[in-house]
Amino acid sequence: MRNPLTGALLALMLSAPCFAADLTPDQSQARELYAKLISYKTSEGLGQVPVMAGFLADEFRKAGFADADIHLLPVGETASLVVRYRGDGSGGKPILLMAHMDVVAADPNDWKRDPFTLIEENGYFFGRGTSDVKDGIATLTATFLRLKREGFVPTRDLVIVFTGDEETEMATTRDLATTHRDLIDADYALNYDGGGGTLEEDGTARTFSIQTAEKAYADFELSTHDAGGHSSRPTPTNAIYQLADALKKVQAYRFPTMWNDTTLAEFAAEGKVAPGALGASMRAFAEDPQNQAAVETLAADPGNVGRTRTTCVATMLRGGHGRNALPQSATANVNCRIFPGTSIEDVRKTLQEVVGGNVEVTTIGSPVSSEASPLRPDVVDAVTRAVHTLYPDIEIVPNQSSGATDGMYFRNAGIPTYGVGGMFMKDSDAFAHGLDERVPVKGFYDGLDYWYVLLKDVAGKR
Question: Which residues 6+ apart lie within 8 Å of 30 measured at CB?
Fold first, then answer.
């Protein structure tokens, strides 16, 4: 039997930084914040987001931020936090700095390490939210605290916006964009939960992406209905079979190939460094998005298919009411990631045409879509300068995300939004939402330097 004290000591050793003496005071503070944030179980239904937000609000107060500039805004069981760093107004309208406090659920029984303890091991930080996106909460908070200590006076207000349910309903984001629009009115927003740097598998920096657009997220319910009956008397109109046939049609259907200025620029840039046939297809698509061979290669790659079209995939099933009864109904959830410029209702109509009149297709909730943000030279130049302090001369690439973030609500509210991350990592280290989520330790500390430079650039005196 393992000695409990031995286990506790081992956990403490793993959670401690390997080279604490090498950390600067600013890095040490950021790491302590990071560890504290990971310890909060901020997945849906646990009520911990307001608790974590309260902790952060106290940290800002202790640093000298006025109560009038700290807003903890409850929405149901969750909350958002808005903190204003006041400037002298000479630089124009405020800039928003975004990240989300919630995480997806994590069962400690499934993980090799406690998901709610920040573990530093083999050059990585492990824990739920280390990459999505409590590293952003820690980085933005630590950067505000550092700038405040140094007496920095920005030329415009800098406004932190930490939302509380990005992974689920985004109700806090809608609340901010509507009820509290006065708190977030801004020239533009910089979103930590988007963009960022990509490393080759050997650790060489490949590119840094600025997310200017994202696909809309929408769920559709496919339902079939039948009179049912006794299972000993099967009928040809079985609701489950009808639904299965419909789902196979959805699986086989391919939405039209689409592109925009962002995706063409992205493929052109990434095609220069991506290896083999994939890189060649990226370059060919950027030159001619109707090149069918390039389209097929990109469509066969899960990391790129979503960048070329709307995608829809079945994600959940339920049906029947008894083991010995013919089903009276069957239902599936089909999740779609919709290319900018395509309406959500048009996608619903397309699905209806694909599955036929015997299947009912309904939109779940009130999904939102948004157009791409303009590629502003001032934002691109500032991000480029900050990135090049870490990796000189790497290419800065526009990006359209196949996922969805809070940014879509701010774009819809008329606030151009740019995902500018700050974390550099390998594709093979992307474990967001999965087991043993992790980020490179170096990536976290480099991100602190990057955001410090970036904020002083966009809101400093020239």
Answer: 138, 139, 142, 444, 445, 448
Domain boundaries, the chain: 7-194+405-459, 216-364
Q: What are 334-379's pLDDT values in tens digits? A: 999 999 889 999 999 999 999 999 999 999 998 988 888 988 999 9
What is the rounded average pLDDT of the residues 153-180? 96
Contact 38, 134 (CB under 8 A): yes
Q: Is the pTM of this model over 0.70?
A: yes
Beta-sheet strand order (sheet of 438-440): 119-121, 124-126, 438-440
d(CA 268, CA 284): 8
- Mean pLDDT over 108-114 rounds to 94
The DSSP bridge pattern shows strands 424-426 and 196-199 to be parallel
Q: How far apart are CA 334 and CA 351, in angstroms?
A: 10
For the domain made up of 7-194+405-459, give the CATH fold.
Aminopeptidase (3.40.630)
For the chain, first and last CA: distance in Å?
A: 64
**Residue 127 backbone zone (phi > 0: left; psi -120 to 50: alpha; other: beta):** left
Q: Reply yes or no on domain 216-364 having CATH 3.30.70.360.
A: yes
